C-alpha cells in the first residue's frame, strides 16, 4: 500500500489504529474529527486536519481511509461514516497489526481491524468495519458481523457467530458455537454459555439478560 491513510476520528480508538498502521510501516497523512476541540491538534504526532469533510480535499485514488471511532454499544456512527465515504469511492483496507495472529483462510471485510496482539484463527470471517481489539482471541471458524466489536481481551471459542453491530465487552468469554444476535451487547467479563437474542444485553457468570433501566456502561 503506497497511499497514505487518513483516520476518521481522533479519540482513543484512533490512537490504537494509528499505532497499528505505524507498526505495519504504513504512511499516515493525518486524522479528521467532527469535534471542533480536536481539530488542529495532534495524535501521536499526526495532525487533526479538520472535520470529516477534509477528506474531500483528496481524490479517492490518492488516499486510504481507516475508521478511528470505536463502538461501545452504538455502531451506527461508524457505519454511517464508512458508508458515506465508500459511496464516494474511497477505500477502507483492512488494518492488521503486525503483532496480531491471522490464521489461514481468514476473510477480512473492508475496513475491518485486527489490533495489537489480537488473534483471529483459521477460517474466521470478519464483516465490513468489524473490530477485533487489543489482545482479543477469536478462535477458528468464527463469524463476526459488519461493524461488530470484539473488545480488548475478549475470548471467543470456535465457531461463534456474532451478529452485526454487536459488542462483546472487555474480557468476556464465549463458549464454542454460541450465536450472538444482531445489535446485542455482552457485558465486560461475562461468561456466555447460551445464545444471545437480537438486541439483548447480557452480563455476569453465567451471562443473564439485563433490564433496560440497568444498561449503563456494562461493556
From TrEMBL:
Keyword Repeat assigned: yes
Keyword set, alphabetical order: Repeat, Transferase
Keyword Zinc-finger part of the UniProt annotation: no
An MF annotation (GO) of this entry: transferase activity
Sites where the protein binds substrate: 73
Residue ranges occupied by any PglD N-terminal domain in the UniProt entry: 6-83
Chain positions recorded as acetyl-CoA binding sites: 149
InterPro entries documented for this protein: AcTrfase_PglD-like, Hexapep_transf_CS, PglD_N, Trans_hexapeptide_repeat, Trimer_LpxA-like_sf
Site (Increases basicity of active site His): 141
Classification via Pfam families: PglD_N (PF17836)
Active site: 140 (proton acceptor)
Family per similarity comment: Belongs to the transferase hexapeptide repeat family.
NCBIfam families from the UniProt entry: NeuD_NnaD (TIGR03570)
Protein name according to UniProt: Hexapeptide transferase family protein
Species of origin: Magnetospirillum gryphiswaldense
